[in-house]
Amino acid sequence: MTDTAELLWRPSEERIQSAPITKYLRWLREERGLDFAGYEDLWRWSVTELEAFWASIWDFSGIIAHRGYDRVLDRRVMPGARWFDGALVNYAEQSLWRAREPEWADRPAVVCESESRPRMELSWQQLGEQVAAFAATLRGLGVRQGDRVVAYLPNVPESIVAMLAATSLGAVWSSAAPDMGAAGVLDRFQQIEPKVLVAVDGYRYGGKAFDRREVLRDIAAGLPSLETLILVPHLNPTPDFGAPGAVRTLTFGDAVAAPAPLEFTPVPFAHPLWVVYSSGTSGKPKPIVHGHGGFLLENLKSAALHLDIGDGDRFLWFTSTGWIMWNLSVVTLVAGCTVLQLDANPAHPHAGALFDFAARERATFLGTSPAYLSACIKAGVVPGDDYDLSAVRTLGSTGSPLTPEAYRWVYRHVNADLLLAGISGGTDPGAAFLTSCPVLPVYAGEMQCRGLGVAAHALDDAGRELLDEVGELVVTEPMPSMPLYFWGDDDGTRYRESYFETYPGLWRHGDWVRLIPRPESVTGVIYGRSDSTINRQGIRMGTSEIYRVVEEYPEIVDSLAIDLEYLGRPSYLALFVVLRDEDAKSVPPDLRARLFAAIRAGVSPRHVPDEVFATPEVPRTLSGKKMEVPVRKILLGRPPDQVANRDATANPAALDWFADFAPVLGARLR
């Protein structure tokens, strides 16, 4: 099945020699007596000699430990593997040791630009001082190791300060973005019973102000365990806010006013660090618990060996605090990066605003999403001409598959000499399965490699390994960053059902993947969620293949492909498109014909839709993923509120359109 690879970029010898992974290979040779022929040889060692590999990452990265580990891994089992037993660490300490070093004191640690207030910058010393003061306030409020501190904050410096302060005490952190409604936030936070809530009064986005005080009151009232609210005045310097009941209130300024020493509570490697959540598109979100040591180790590895970042880099990934990419962004502090935060609409006041911010702040790493890049392409943005992006060495993308056309656009219109780091992993593992590497080439539409220490494979329905064919993405060996457990899932039933039922003992992630043998490494392409994949006459196809063709048309803003296979009937493939002409109620016949011809030629004759319909918008999760599975269930007759959480949906009204359309479509199928 391997096609002719379209090579878009190959690193220069200078970049290869300066890359941290080259330093790591040299270190392995000198310290461990290990020599590898190339990346794939190194990857194979990393997933077969797990203990040796992860011990090398511990030593190479300089993990700060108050007590060393007794053994790297107790047993190679999933779930239930225990890593680095005996070790005592603290995530916040690894993030902030530079705050105590004189040569780092005045260097910028966090830079934020917001629609709500002027540009803000914290030096490493200032960050350390604020964390120390906030931690002392939390301690005075009775927060102890294991207590939960939660946030309803945008991507601003206060979110980083509060998170590091909580985790420095061994408290457990969790956050939600302030664009979420009260019901969605409570679905998350009620499960973990927080003691302290840090929140904003509102925010600005796209030039509009959003007052969240009423929502915040509902959230506070819905958390019986809540004792204290720490308010960040974001819209108004002195907001009029009354917390319900016995909940005490203070401002963020009060919480960081009194100087205190910077201290850290040593905790076991597997002590809970934070709780993150699945999208919650159906039912309550899964409260996924990551550990201090596992998240640290995975992301120290990722920063150095895959993302090519380290001391002095300026790291920007556009994200909200409700997406795992926020966690990935702030963890780059452990690598010595300056974290760049944009609390704004990335397309306001113009489509290229994110690129503009990256240029002004001299970002060396710029992370975004396929949806944003697609919007820039359709808006005619030419970032390389419009902005000075000479500092950007790496452009990251995740959230959904990035098309080959988007890859080409990046190299034509952003920069011909940069690493395009497409990554695919998830909130659940706290890691990327398929990722980037600065010493490997980039092929159009393909992620460069499988992550080191990540035994990612493609399997068919019978559990046989596939290469160069589309199959289920599985991980066959444990990873330190895998969830410790789900909060409240005392017997582990929900955890096992989520990942290990289909292939017992193997992590099934729920994506279709094709692993492609290339000369330097095995690259990868994600074809969409396996539970929404189209199976026509025995030929499986990810929806992203259809979107790649359809969304090339300038008349189309967005699209959604849904396979409605009924029991005992052949599949009915419905294509929904959002037309650029907002007044159009149906798809013009000539456009329909062109679309079908393009899908026939570019995807396969079997995957030509039965019909195409115009829809006002495509339902998406808060992190931008198309809600294929909930829409499929709605079109099969399920009520929207039974299959989707509206507060986890970026545009919940879009679900109602599909509910209204379901009877119309049903009549066609009868």
Explain what this protein looks like in three dimensions.
By secondary structure, the protein is of the alpha/beta class. The protein folds into three domains: 7-92 and 292-529, Rossmann fold (3-Layer(aba) Sandwich), CATH 3.40.50; 95-265, Rossmann fold, CATH 3.40.50; 556-669, 2-Layer Sandwich (GMP Synthetase, Chain A, domain 3), CATH 3.30.300.30. The chain is 31% helix and 24% strand. The protein has 22 helices and 36 strands. The strands form eleven sheets. It has a seven-stranded mixed β-sheet with strand order 6-5-18-17-19-20-21, sandwiched between helices. The protein has a five-stranded parallel β-sheet with strand order 8-7-9-12-13, sandwiched between helices. Helix 3 crosses helix 4 and helix 18 (543-550) crosses helix 19 (589-602). Belongs to the ATP-dependent AMP-binding enzyme family. InterPro entries: Acac_CoA_synth, ACAS_N, AMP-bd_C_sf, AMP-binding_CS, AMP-dep_synth/lig_dom, ANL_N_sf.
How does the SSE layout of this entry go?
Blueprint: E1 7-9, H1 13-18, H2 20-32, H3 39-48, H4 50-61, E2 71-73, E3 83-85, E4 88-89, H5 91-96, E5 108-114, E6 120-123, H6 124-140, E7 148-152, H7 157-168, E8 172-176, H8 182-189, E9 196-200, E10 202-205, E11 208-211, H9 213-221, E12 228-232, E13 248-251, H10 252-255, E14 267-268, E15 272-277, E16 287-291, H11 292-305, E17 314-317, H12 324-331, E18 338-343, H13 353-360, E19 365-368, H14 370-379, H15 383-386, E20 394-397, H16 404-413, E21 419-422, E22 424-426, E23 431-435, E24 442-443, E25 449-450, E26 456-459, E27 465-466, E28 470-475, E29 485-486, H17 493-499, E30 507-517, E31 522-529, E32 534-536, E33 539-541, H18 543-550, E34 556-563, E35 573-579, H19 589-602, E36 611-614, H20 628-635, H21 640-643, H22 653-669
Parallel strand pairs: 5-18, 7-8, 7-9, 9-12, 12-13, 17-18, 17-19, 19-20, 20-21, 35-36
Antiparallel strand pairs: 1-24, 2-3, 4-14, 5-6, 10-11, 15-16, 16-29, 22-23, 23-25, 26-27, 26-28, 28-30, 30-31, 32-33, 34-35
